[in-house]
Amino acid sequence: MSIGLTLTLTDICTSTYLAANFLADDFYDGITLDPTCITAKTVTNATASSVFYPNAVIDYCAVTFKYSHNGLDDSVLLTYWIPALAKFQNRYLSTGGGGYAINSRAQSLPGGIEYGAVAGDTDGGFGILQSNAISGFLLASGTLNWRNVYMFGDNAIHEMSVIGKEFTTLIFNMTANNVTLYSYYQGCSESGREGWSQVQRFANQFDEAAIGAPAFRYAFQQIQHLYSNVVENTQATIHRLKILDGLHITDGRRAYFSYTPSSTFTDAATAHNDTSGEYGVSIQDGWNRYNDVLLTNWPDLTPYKNAGGKIIHFHGESDYSIPTASSVRSYESVREIMNPGLSYNDSVATTNEFYRLFLVPGGSHCAVNTAEPNGPWPQTNLQVLIDWVEN
């Protein structure tokens, strides 16, 4: 901890204190921060429970403020939870969302508080649409709002993280006391893709990231959700070509990533198209249009490794939403591309120095499998990361 115990959580949790220790106006090029809109609320004895952190009772200060991009008529809301001073361990945690949401609100933020970190999330400028940010991808004219696409893809999480780290150092007076801030990321599913978007682009942003079942290869991933609807139409063709359990290429590997037999599904259903007035399934021409922003599968993580970053990547083996094989393929791509000329065993050992993949037996999509309620799940990944980087 960097500031004296003479200041309590209640002392810090005021708009006056936070504004007096706010970021400089020119801290982030192209962004205008607004300290006049700071809100702060002290919360005590709150219960927290999740598959991503142990059950706990926590005290924290919930802070919000906004910023805008110069020249744009936008407003982005940031939320940071600050732990009680006695619990602060010089850590910052960024969190993401799920599905088409860019944040998961109170579901993820307690994880930071439990481990002595200031925890942050963002609405990405989508406001009330943040739970379905894709609704903001189109302008009134029907053309793409590329600014929103890129905010959802990686910019919003990046800006929230850079601002959040500086905010943490200021309110705890860390720079003046020459104290190191450890920065972390934790997320699963869409939040996992968001985590990879940061690791692949911004090498110095996080010391470590805990990333589960990431929804990368976005174009493939969303079409994969149509599997139940289209499998009957392709079964006859595949049957003529199959070897054991589906279409394979010449060396025996499967030509597509399907779900594992133990995955739990709901019944297939059609969707109503309000424009055409018809029921059915449609695939727009977005396969390649969003590759640079949403595909998120760049395998050369050399800058992140050289910066000292660490990654724990996990995926349930019975995931019903994102095939487990997609994570295996990602790890293999990183291993092969970053270690040319090394044997398989040597390349695995070298990769594991900074990036480790764990498959969870029976694990469902970012949760314990309902068919295996007492099955394993890595609930304390963040603690494992902390031990890896700090100890």
List the helices and strands and how they pair.
Blueprint: H1 9-12, H2 15-20, E1 31-50, E2 53-69, E3 76-83, E4 91-95, H3 109-114, E5 117-122, H4 146-171, E6 182-188, H5 190-201, E7 208-212, H6 218-224, H7 227-241, E8 271-273, E9 278-280, H8 291-295, H9 302-306, E10 310-316, H10 324-338, H11 344-351, E11 355-360, H12 381-390
Parallel strand pairs: 4-5, 4-6, 6-7, 7-10, 10-11
Antiparallel strand pairs: 1-2, 2-3, 3-5, 8-9
Helix pairs in contact: 4-5, 10-11
Describe what this molecule looks like in 3D.
This protein has one domain: Alpha/Beta hydrolase fold, catalytic domain (Rossmann fold, 3-Layer(aba) Sandwich). Helices cover 30% and strands 22% of the residues. By secondary structure, the protein is of the alpha/beta class. The protein has a nine-stranded mixed beta sheet, with helices on both faces. The chain has a two-stranded antiparallel ribbon with strand order 8-9.
Major sheet description: 9 strands, mixed
Low-confidence parts: none
Radius of gyration: 22 Å
Q: How many strand segments?
A: 11
Query: Can you identify the CATH class?
Result: Alpha Beta
* Helix content, binned percent: 25-40%
Helix-strand pattern: HHEEEEHEHEHEHHEEHHEHHEH
CATH fold assignment: Rossmann fold
- How many helices? The count is 12
Strand order of the largest sheet: 1-2-3-5-4-6-7-10-11
Q: Report mean pLDDT, rounded to a whole number.
A: 87
Look at the helices and sheets and give the structural class: alpha/beta
What is the distance, rounded to the nearest whole angstrom, between the alpha carbons of the first and last residues? Answer: 17 Å
CATH architecture: 3-Layer(aba) Sandwich
Kindly report the oligomeric state of this protein: single chain
